[in-house]
Design brief:
single chain; 134 residues; alpha+beta; 5-stranded mixed beta barrel; 6 strands
Length: 134
């Protein structure tokens, strides 16, 4: 009969679990809000960040998610140049940011995807706008 020693069996089990968890993490497709913008962020001393070269602030309660989609503390990212998708609150502060993987960064930003295939023009303010009731 063939028996596998417990330490060897445990090692094979852990190897298999690690392989499965890595495959699942790489297959994660993160849904970004349609109004998210793309930029290059450099985190400074909290709450200061540089976004596309201009000084901005993280909002109170704002967060930065890494490529594993877990939250990173801003202090751990200080000085790093990060390609991100981000959203702003009504005060113009950055309230959510997602650090992009190279694969995500090569895709179009969400804010341009919703406009693809359609042309939007702002209405002429001098002309009245009429709505039809159904």
């Amino acid at each position: 009969m063939f028996f596998i020693r417990p330490p060897v069996a445990c090692a094979f089990f852990l190897l298999g679990m690690t392989t499965l968890s890595n495959a699942g993490a790489q297959a994660l497709e993160r849904p970004f809000p349609q109004h998210a913008k793309r930029g290059v962020m450099v985190v400074g001393s909290y709450p200061q960040v540089s976004l596309n070269g201009s000084q901005r602030r993280l909002s109170a309660g704002g967060w930065i998610r890494n490529v594993r989609n877990t939250v990173d503390l801003p202090v751990t990212l200080q000085g790093q140049e990060l390609t991100v998708n981000y959203t702003e609150n009504q005060q113009g502060e950055i309230d959510r940011a997602w650090i992009l993987s190279p694969q995500e960064a090569s895709q179009r930003p969400p804010s341009t995807e919703r406009q693809s295939g359609a042309s939007f023009s702002s209405p002429d303010p001098s002309e009245p706008v009429f709505f039809e009731a159904n």
